[in-house]
Amino acid sequence: MIDLSVKIDKLLLKNPVMTASGTFGYGFEFEDFLDISQLGGIIVKATTSKHREGNRYPRMAETSMGMLNAVGLQNKGVDYFVNETYPKLKKYNTNVIVNVSDSTIEGYVEVAEKINALEYIPGIELNISCPNVKEGGMAFGTSCPMAAGVVKAVRKVYKKTLIVKLSPNVTNISEIAKAVEDAGADSVSLINTLLGMAIDAEKRRPVLSTVTGGLSGPAVKPVALRMVYQVAKAVKIPVIGLGGISSAADAIEFMLAGATAIQVGTANFIDPAITIKIIDGITDYLQRHHIKDINELIGALEV
Amino acid sequence: MNIRNWICLYDNKLTTVKKIIHDLVVIENKSVGGNNFVLSLKAPDKLPEILPGQFCEVKVDKSPEVFLRRPFSIHDIDYQSNILTLLIKAVGKGTNILSGIAKGDTINIVYPLGNGFSLSKEPNILLVGGGCGVAPLLFLAKTFKNMGLSPVVLVGGRTSDDVPQLDAYQAIAETHIATEDGSAGEKGLVTQHSLFKTRLSDFKRIYTCGPEGMMKAVAKAAEALEIPCEVSLENTMACGIGACLCCVTETTEGHKCVCTDGPVFDSRDLNGWNIEKASKCSLPYLKADNHD
């Protein structure tokens, strides 16, 4: 019997495969394609203190083996989430984690406090890395004192598992990871999207309404893998790896680099049932390599 | 709006059809003039129930530059032989690869997606298509015909090459043509066609699909005569199932996903499509989120 379960702080995941925020809606959108309860966890769409309409269309540009997005945290706000969305999420027999974002520390704290009261939400992922909003977002995640400040403030009101999602748009991601660990984070997830840009040469115009956007998909995987490798060596808390994961082999690579769990993001857009295939593929890998406990893989890279 | 569109065609029961992923076999790839082609695809087993105006997301292999699926509306359906057809114009990398696909190849699709056109029982219906935007209107015209109605079809394009599948429309409906160069039908835009000038007020409902400028002109002409008009939008999409929030359009109720709230909208619900509101097409609260 192969044991696929892993632990992120107090969270027990039946397998290391989660879905990345902003790529899986609230899970409902994918119910026709898979049994959500088979996943290790889902990270639902970013929730902010107030309703946000997001950025103007066009918000997306296809790139080679990837895409840029500039959605801009469109969501109906935390009160709507608590009253309307949360009751429908209780049916899932998996870890439902809420991605929390905002423009101010007070906003982050307000959302975290309201979500802390929800029995069936065992953790939050603090998004200090969204590249698509003018204020807040990535600004918090690209400076050690700013990152530590928001994590400390949220830690005071949030009593369950606190994951912090890191931005790759920094010179030294390990320093940011250590700063949020010292500030009380229980885990870090990385990477959010890489700041990028697309231009329509015929029109001499940027493709995105915001000019720049966040790059995701297989194109970013080598960068993500390197950063997970560096951060896993720098911190003691568990690392959740993401960035272009589209197959079981990709997932295994992130675990060998030091990730305890992984998130599948953009790949959900191309194959809505990809997560189940990745779980099955991980089981196959472990069988082929005669590994009984997936935890043996974490950080097992031989350099 | 969603519930209205989910009224099942065939048994009049409220139903939501499960979305599925299928590998379909190409049984024909037929060039139909211009850069347009029609793909006939056979399902491995029974086709799901599909409504006119719904679409599918097609996976395009063989190029790292074509990363995302491509959305196409369903052109026609044959439930007896489980064949679905798509009318596509080769305009970019993805559609060019698809234009070269051969009989016997398989195509992976996710379907049926989005909300279809509402099926009016009013007798006087006008369908207006532009270029390969006529694609969903064949399935819609056939559906109306099966309901015992006689829709009128008006198609337009730059030249005669841009009005594909004319035979198919002419076989089932009174069909009118407008081309900008006059190479087929009347010369000019669809909104300059004599049908628009003399008979528009006869119609009780208008359905349109094509270039946005054409659809807006049709919608405004319809609105001026208080005729309900449904338009099918074609925004750039990633997921097609309402998860990524990339394909949004501005509506009177804020941003809505074209993939799941549309692709068919009542033109009166869209900001900037309305006669009175034509000048103020952006939402004031959007400014806060913009980069610059």
Describe this structure in words.
The complex is a heterodimer of chains A (303) and B (292). With 303 residues, chain A is of the alpha/beta class. Chain A has one domain (6-54, 72-198, 215-297): Alpha-Beta Barrel (TIM Barrel), CATH 3.20.20.70. Chain A has nine helices and 16 strands. In chain A, the strands form four sheets. Chain A has an eight-stranded parallel barrel with strand order 3-4-7-8-9-10-15-16, surrounded by six helices. A four-stranded antiparallel beta sheet of chain A has the order 5-6-14-11, with no helix packed on it. The longest helix of chain A has 15 residues, at 274-288. The two termini of chain A are 29 Å apart. Chain B has 292 residues and is of the alpha/beta class. Chain B folds into two domains: 2-113, Elongation Factor Tu (Ef-tu), domain 3 (Beta Barrel); 125-279, Rossmann fold (3-Layer(aba) Sandwich). Helix content of chain B is 16%, strand content 29%. Chain B has six helices and 16 strands. Chain B has a seven-stranded antiparallel beta sheet. Residues 1-15 and 278-292 of chain B have low confidence and may be disordered. Classes of the chains: A alpha/beta (303), B alpha/beta (292). The A-B interface holds A 22-25, 29-30, 32-33, 52-60, 62-67, 69-74, 132-134, 209-212, 217, 266, 268-273 and B 18-21, 59, 64-69, 110, 235-250, 254-255, 260, 282-283, 285-286, 288-292.
The biggest beta sheet of chain A reads:
8 strands, parallel, barrel
Mean pLDDT of chain A: 96
The topology string of helices and strands of chain B comes to HEEEEEEHEEHEHEEHEHEEEE
Helix content of chain B: 10-25%
Query: Count of helices of chain A?
Result: 9
The whole-angstrom Rg of chain B is: 19 Å
How far apart the termini of chain A lie comes to 29 Å
How much beta of chain B, percentage-wise? 25-35%
Supply the CATH architecture of chain A. Answer: Alpha-Beta Barrel
CATH architecture of the largest domain in chain B: 3-Layer(aba) Sandwich
Strand order of the largest sheet of chain B: 4-3-7-1-2-6-5
Shape of chain B: globular
Instruction: Indicate the structural class of chain B.
Output: alpha/beta
Percentage of residues assigned to helices of chain A: 25-40%
Radius of gyration of chain A: 18 Å
CATH superfamily of chain A: Aldolase class I
